[in-house]
Amino acid sequence: MEYSNLRRQAAYMKKSLFDQGYLDEQFYQLEELQDDVSPNFVEEVVTLFFRDSARLISNIEQALDKCPQEFSKLNAFVHQLKGSTSSIGASRLKNECTRFRDYCDEENLEGCLKSFQKLKREHAVLRQKLESYFQLLRQVGPVEKATRPSM
Amino acid sequence: MDPSRAAASTASSGRPRDGVGPPPDFPAGLRVLVVDDDPTCLKILDRMLRKCLYDVTTCTRAAAALAMLRERRGAFDVVLSDVYMPDMDGFKLLEHIGLEMDLPVIMMSADDGRDVVMKGVTHGACDYLIKPVRMEALRNIWQHVVRKRRNELKELEHSGSAEENDRQKRALEDGDNASSASEGNWKNVKRRKDGKEEEEVEEREDPSTLKKPRVVWSVDLHQQFVAAVNQLGVDKAVPKKILELMKVPRLTRENVASHLQKYRLYLRRLSVPQHEARLDTPYTGASEATFRSVGSFDGLDTQALAVSGQFPPQSLTTLHSGPRRVTTTGIGLPSIDQVGFFNSSAQMANASNIRPAMMQQMNNKQLNFLSGPSTNMESGQHGQSQQLVESYGNMGLRVGEGASGFFNLPSSQRTSTSFPGGTINVNLSNSLPMQMTQQGQQFSVCQQQNRIHISMPRQLQTREQLLNEILGEYDSRLSTPMGHQILSNEVSGHVSGRGRSNMNVRTSLREGYMNASSYGPLSHALYADFSNSGMNESTGSCYPLASGAGTTNFTSIGMLQEALPPVGNVETLGNSVSVKGANDFVPDYDLLSDVRQSKSQDWKSQNIDVSYQSAQQLGSKQSNIDFGSSRLAHEDSIAAIKDDKSRNACTVRKEIFSVRTEIEHEKGDCTAQRNGTILVENSLRVMAEGMSDLSYQEVLFDDNIIQNELMNVVGKKQQEGVGQVDPEFNFDGYSWDDIQV
């Protein structure tokens, strides 16, 4: 019971992540890649993502601090970020990246700064949400994908 | 990502490719080298490729990748590389690989800008994938390997060696590597920017079945070719000269000639993106024909339309355009038929202002629609056109969209011209659905509406007759302006023949369709609430709608009589009217009253005008409402028609109207209204007329049943009360004011 409850919770959490636009269908692709050979694939990728994206974000922050006018550099950073966010299906974050990049293209520093703040926030929120999600999944155990309770 | 892994993987699968052919379990075991500086992407790609049973080696640095490639020649089959990398530009890497190892390289990037993709192509990439990369895209990358191999073989052989080589070459030449950037395949590039691996081998032609040495039109070669062609001028380029300019050894004139041919085709395709339909032409032609007749209406219609805002000129355009798109299949052409149809209706159309406008639009569209596969109405394309298309498709009901439901209801081909005036019962219904939705009304119903009677411009006279016929009982009165809207709605509702007085506003077109008095209240009723059957009742089939509920309904009313063309409008009107009706009743009334005067024709036109106007007013509202109502109306009308001409209008209306108020919910109600098939039909017609009410269309669509019914009704009506229409259309004492809801 508890098991299936947890599972339901996890499913619900996942669904809400999708509904709220945090994740998009690329995330499903990731899930499909998970199997016996790579049982924790999704979590691994996500962890990797957050590590890498944190680095990129701090790079951007530094760049904005020190050489804010180098829009092309900013652009390059955010492009990278965008690539990985879209790869894991982080939809909202990706959109924010797009907006940031647009500001860069316009060389609108103020816009960039504002957008960057949003970007950081989205990043933090997504991280937290996914962390809880995976935590829940871990509790549920490997059968979370199964349709029938294995308890 | 980790060279160690790469090493391991390569070692394990280091089967040298000696060109003898793929291993038996191919593509499993394909040796892929992935280069991407993003670890997340790399990990994902790695996993995906492994799932495809490929041998994967990953690298984060381009330089390292290059080194690896150099060290282990023949150890890889294909390279996947990201475009933006910190240490080296992906394109540079691409070039290197191409020059040194001649391996197929696939580029990847989140950037899907055309220029970038083009760059990939020109640099020789086999394909270009857009991130995020999906598994499906990766599954097929093996084809590039095979293709390249074959090409190499061919080149080696250098002469019509194996036939398969030829084919390979051809494939290569034709370019269709499924993905976008196939070498030398400009088509692909253009098409598949996102690197979808669709095997669209467009040109599978066989330029030379002879055993000629197959020329591989590599990117470079093609570029040279293009340069030469441009230098000479695309039109003036001849193979001989191109050959001279290119100065490529071993290239024959025939090679160039065939390539040039393909190139020209390609260019042509580029410049004519959507002319498949070429509907425009037919439309215009057809429409013109019809317009002529409609001409008289045109003035009216356009005005009406303009007024009603239903068919703004643009809609016409759209219509044109629309049909094109939509009808590529046939609407355009058939329009000729329709044209004829319209013509006839056009005659009637004097009054049918709506009609003319609609006609025009309709013509364009309708013609298209009518004639063609109504389904084409896929109007989705342009709001306006759609409308027309829709209507046409649906029977022109759709018109609604922009054109407020031009009602032309392109309903399918049914052009049951039962409406003398203009209810073109085009059973286009197909397309309607599409358009309907535009307004949000979901005219998707249209499809069903094959039977939609396109009540196109109700040439009042004819229309009336039609309406009459249809409505039988429908009081054409209703159809008049007020009724239009209401009618449309109501008609549908009323048409159900229930004689629900209100709705039947128009059904009783015969009775003097526009019985003002009756309409007056009807109109109100229509709008305010169909339940005011009082209105209808008095008029018999006056569709309150028609009464000019300010809304186009009226038109439908008029239509009801005849062929319910007004109904169409009415319906739309009704629908819209219902909602709007109440509001905008007034204006229509006036029109209606005028219309009445003219009776047969006048009211029609007026109706149309009215309807349009009202429609306009209702316009926005209508769409939604009408939709609902139209649906109902439609159903009703149809039903009505079937049941009993007389009743239909009124009853239908009522129901429709009331329904309409909710409009959103109406749809459901519409079905209830089935009874008023006749009405529905009328309304449909009315709607078609241009009641931008998509809803009408909806109504129409929904009403397959209705249509059927309507058809029945109409048929009957025709027989019965053709003559009555006129008198009935006079809205005696019909005062819109009264009708005001």
Overview of the molecule:
The complex is a heterodimer of chains A (151) and B (741). Chain A is an all-alpha fold and 151 residues long. Chain A has 6 helices and no strands. In chain A, α3 runs antiparallel to α4 and α5 packs antiparallel against α6. Chain A is elongated, with a radius of gyration of 18 Å. The C terminus of chain A is likely disordered. Chain B is mainly alpha-helical. Chain B has a 5-stranded parallel β-sheet with strand order 2-1-3-4-5, with helices on both faces. A two-stranded antiparallel ribbon of chain B has the order 6-7. In chain B, α23 runs parallel beside α27 and α27 packs across α32. Chains A and B meet through α2, α3 and α4 of A and α2 of B.
Approximate strand percentage of chain A: under 5%
Structural classification of chain A: mainly alpha
| Quaternary structure annotation | heterodimer
Q: Please identify the structural class of chain B as seen in this structure.
A: mainly alpha
Mean pLDDT of chain A: 87
The largest sheet of chain A, given as strand count, sense and whether it forms a barrel, is: none
Strand content of chain B: 5-15%
How many beta-strand elements of chain A? 0
Largest sheet of chain B, order of strands side by side?
2-1-3-4-5
Cα shape of chain B: elongated
Q: Biggest sheet of chain B, in brief?
A: 5 strands, parallel
- The percent of residues in helical segments of chain A reads over 70%
Euclidean distance between termini CA atoms of chain A: 8 Å
Question: Which value, in Å, is the CA radius of gyration of chain A?
Answer: 18 Å
- Unreliable segments of chain B (pLDDT under 50, ≥5 consecutive)? 1-17, 174-210, 274-711, 713-741
- The succession of helices and strands of chain A, N to C, reads HHHHHH
Helix content range of chain B: 55-70%
Task: State mean pLDDT of chain B (0 to 100 scale).
Answer: 53
Radius of gyration of chain B over all CA atoms, rounded = 32 Å
Distance between the termini of chain B: 74 Å
